[in-house]
From TrEMBL:
Boundaries of every RNA polymerase sigma factor 70 region 4 type domain copy: 105-155
Domain of life of the native organism: Bacteria
Lineage per the UniProt record: Bacteria, Pseudomonadati, Pseudomonadota, Gammaproteobacteria, Cellvibrionales
InterPro entries cross-referenced by the UniProt entry: RNA_pol_sigma70_r4_t2 (IPR013249), RNA_pol_sigma_r3/r4-like (IPR013324), WH-like_DNA-bd_sf (IPR036388)
Transmembrane annotation, as ranges: none
Protein name: RNA polymerase sigma factor
Amino acid sequence: MSRKAFQHYSDESLLEHYRETRSLAVFRPLYARHKDALYRYCVQMASTSTTQLLQTLWQNVLEDPPQLHGRLFRNWLFIQVNKALREYSSPIGQTSSQMMPEQNKVIAAIQKLPLLQRNVLLLHMECKLSLATVADIEKMSLKKCREYYQLARQQVETLIYGSEAKPWQVEAIKE
């Protein structure tokens, strides 16, 4: 089968097919669908360990494809990455604001958030996981997860724009 033939399969179907055949042609679409989001998430959570962490994750999937038990493969991936990130006890590498180019203010602001708030924000915004899934990953109530998410968004906005409220639109020109 060609690569295009696998485009219409769900992740879970591809994983099951890979488990049966161990065909790299089946694995490649799975990898391609999730590699970028996983990388962006890991870089922002633990930049110094991203390569090792993702290499281990994908190697494990290749060698022993997981049994999902009704869970979505995407959710399973982020749960595994989150577990691995918790094992790294070293502080997350932060880049100083002076070294960050102007266009990276958002990344710098996100990296200044406390770990739990950063994780909730990134899992929801970057990884496109529902807040219910994020709450499950973090083992907290949905209400608490929403609070962390809102707080993280507010803090990022404050770090970028300062504490003084800034208008989103240019003031109307006086006639």
